[in-house]
Design goal:
The structure is a homodimer. The first copy, chain A, has about 325 residues and is an alpha/beta fold. Chain A is built from ten helices and twelve strands. In chain A, strands 8-7-6-9-10-11-12 form a seven-stranded parallel sheet. In chain A, strands 2-1-3-4-5 form a five-stranded parallel sheet, sandwiched between helices. In chain A, helix 3 links the parallel strand 4 and strand 5. Chain A is elongated, with a radius of gyration of 21 Å. The model of chain A has no long low-confidence stretch (mean pLDDT about 95). Chains A and B meet through helix 4 and helix 5 of A and helix 4 and helix 5 of B.
Amino acid sequence: MATKVLIFSPNGQEACRYGELLHAAIDDAEFTVASTAEEALPAIGEAEVLLGWKFPAGLLARAKALCWIHKVSAGVEDVVFDPDLPRSVHLTRSEGVAIAPRMIEYVLCAIYMTTQQFPRAMRQQQRKLWSSYFVDKAEGKIVGVAGVGDIGSVIARALAKNGMRVLGWRRSRTAGVAGIERIFVGHEELKPFVSACDFVVSVLPTTAETKGVFSTSVFAAMKSHAVFINVGRGASVDENALADAVTRGVIGGAVLDVFCEEPLPATSPLWGLQRVIITPHVSGPVVPEDVVGLFIDNFRRYRAGERLHREIDLQRGY
Amino acid sequence: MATKVLIFSPNGQEACRYGELLHAAIDDAEFTVASTAEEALPAIGEAEVLLGWKFPAGLLARAKALCWIHKVSAGVEDVVFDPDLPRSVHLTRSEGVAIAPRMIEYVLCAIYMTTQQFPRAMRQQQRKLWSSYFVDKAEGKIVGVAGVGDIGSVIARALAKNGMRVLGWRRSRTAGVAGIERIFVGHEELKPFVSACDFVVSVLPTTAETKGVFSTSVFAAMKSHAVFINVGRGASVDENALADAVTRGVIGGAVLDVFCEEPLPATSPLWGLQRVIITPHVSGPVVPEDVVGLFIDNFRRYRAGERLHREIDLQRGY
């Protein structure tokens, strides 16, 4: 019997693309493609598998037959923290190697824009002002990657390949990671970690443990020229503390793609800071062609009753 | 007998730094450090060797004993085209490997800023506007490097290392260069070269042959989304043709560090174009510590009557 799979994305074109790619690769499934709550709600009751992201409110409450959710993005906090999540469900997500190559380029760009002072050039250009300045070299700079999971490890390797010295920070002790000189572990090593860095790149997910870890005292431990780059999740940052640290010159600046609340409210002090660059959550876009491979492989495993790859531990949240 | 060496830079601090570094490494020379015409003119008559850049007008006309000029920068057109240059003088310049590592980061930044749409994000930020857009991947894009000399080759390798496909263009046929898929040769292959590229990076020096090679018809041969990046010399570009090509959407945009006239005049149409980024000739800064090594080695050769490394062919101009 065919497995009933509901595909959901609020972007109709994207939802259709997942449908096309999966239909071409999988025979023993019956797909329903939805991009609105009206389309999704009638189908969720019978769906055994749900694939997609940005699920509409109330969807999971009506899931009666659901055994497996595959989130096509890297972040899963919305599903993990959904009170209606059936606790017996299997939850998987896209692997970092499918998403990280696009995030790498955001991070490299953020670092080079800082050392090359491109924002300064663009401000000068608005005034037709020709005024020289010294361009520093990113090669040899110390970049700390907070969150050395599958995405962080890939980013770390790319930074090392371009001549930067890379440090890592993570929750628990682990084997070494290629390209990372030293991995700091746990909350007690967070300040020593950030204090050694010229750039701090957060790839941290939202979990109970990462909430607000970038606090006033952590920013105070950073070098005054250090730049904070966030491509993980906004919840790991105390945004008022960050705005204050930049304003008072405690740190050198920030390049931020993710925020506690998205869209970032117009009232946020971050918008107006010259040393802060804000992008609207565009790093690491999830491209159907990049990420369907894992699902297709897992679908075969699911049908065969085998263990799924990249399953989330619902207790830890990642 | 000690060789009389005149060190000149219009930046006094930089001139002193060259003096310190060379004094520490060379015994058999007598150094004069100058940063103004008033300081330099009395010393040039007896100087056998001149090291530095941005020499004051009329300096070479008073050189009576000069045998060797070492320009610390990569560009030498000001000296080559100086009518007072003693034709028997040896002219050397800094090697690309000493300067290119800093230029690489400018070029990578220019490419990533384009694919990541950072200028758009910064314009949106000024209006506190949160509006998403798709971020393209630079990996896999085709980047053409015009001018595959010592600097261009190093830049090409860095681009290839970051997953870009690299094409090259140069004056004459040559051996292959690591990281470059194909090298186009001569003026007749310039249009096929640019038409294949998503980005065209010019590293061309100013010579009689490179003047205005980036003309209306060459821009017309480029892809309409292609971005032109210039870290070579402004003289290789017809700037009115470039401004016109960007304005009319013939090409996608430009990131320019060098111009026909520097500072770029306030009347230039380039200043006001949204798809053009202007930087004030800051890529590839010449850092004394990076570049004195070659001079120190050449000085020993000079004293021993040996052939100098990196000597310029005054006919070709590079």
